[in-house]
Amino acid sequence: MPVKSLFAFSVLCLFSAVTFAESTVTLNWVGCGISKKAYVTDLAKAFEEKTGIHINIQGGGATKGIRKVVSGEADLGGSCRYQLPADPREAGVGLEPVAWDALVVITHKDNAVNNLTLDQVYNIYIGNITNWKQVGGPDAGIEVFTRKSKFSGVGRTLRKLIFADFNQELASSQTFKSSGPLEKAVIKNPNAIAITGISSARLRDVKILQLGGVTPSYDNIKSGKYQLYRPLYITYNPDSEKLAEVKQFIRFTHSSQGRKIMRANGTLPYREGISLVSRQIKQDLSAFRKGAQLSADTNK
Predict the structure, then answer these.
(1) Smallest Cα–Cα separation from 156: which of 296, 287, 267?
(2) Is residue 128's pLDDT more than 80?
(3) Using one digit for the tens of pLDDT, what is the confidence trace for 95-104?
(4) Which CATH superfamily includes the segment(s) 3-100+230-275?
């Protein structure tokens, strides 16, 4: 083979090898199923088409979405709660808010109840309301399905927004390790009630109740009219060897294409609901004050 041809062939092989290496970069994502359904699955497909970077998606819940990223077992993750400030297993994690989700109350699709007030939800979950007839439904016992962990994304947010107490005990009929099995159980049980994220609930054959007469629609979540909303985060490790690729995915998530994919899934992009940030601060302050008052009343 002539020298020039051999040189050209070598350059071509080198270029092909580099291109192949770039196209086979893989990021391992782990996290909450709600984030997975809300934006990760479809965004990851579009991101791979655009960049060649593959994202291997696994579930496991918000806690794993933080702790496995901190430990280096995953490159990035998804969480529907903030890190636990006193837990060293979550120290140093990067949290990028990318979307808004809402907690919704779900029942069996044939349940006659269409609306509950926050006060009714509160009393159902502490065991003061135990029969559906007490809230306009049939004469049947209410079976309260909850997440097992108090610091799961749903479990922690529920306690924060409704009870202002992260340690609140709930009147659970049955507990579940993750949101998927919980939602599937509601489909089968006509007397069940549960709270989960709207991003996954809307994909199930369940009834999503109004809360205080307000439907958890896209517009009502965006305006803050529907009260039980929370951020969804991408988690990352600032010391990761693949930080550049992780940051690239985060930028794609915030891009016009990424936001379009979110909206197509009925998910509100974080930057398009930025007015909720100030509302969330007030919401947190209200929860703090409520918690302080409850504590004062208990100690009287």
Answers:
(1) 287
(2) yes
(3) 999 999 999 9
(4) Periplasmic binding protein-like II (3.40.190.10)
Nearest alpha carbon to residue 102 among 204, 224, 207: 224
Is domain 102-228+280-298 annotated with CATH 3.40.190.10?
yes
Task: Give the global pTM.
Answer: 0.80
* Tens of pLDDT, residues 20-38: 444 479 999 999 988 998 8
Model confidence pLDDT, tens digit, residues 179-217: 889 999 999 999 999 999 998 899 899 999 999 999 999
Question: What does the alpha-carbon distance between residue 43 and residue 91 come to, in Å, rounded to a whole number?
Answer: 27
What residue ranges do the domains of the chain occupy? 3-100+230-275, 102-228+280-298
Whole-angstrom Cα distance, residue 222 to residue 276?
7
3-state secondary structure of 68: helix
Tokens of 103: 């907690």
CB environment 216-243: b (16+ within 10 A), e (fewer):
bbbebbbebebbbbbbbbbbbbeebebe
Q: How confident is the model at residue 11 (pLDDT cuts 50, 70, 90)?
A: very low
Between CA 36 and CA 79 the distance in angstroms is 9
User: Amino acid identity, residue 151?
Assistant: F
State the Cα–Cα distance between residues 151 and 81, nearest whole angstrom: 8
CA distances from 81 to 50, 62, 68, 291 (A): 29, 7, 15, 19
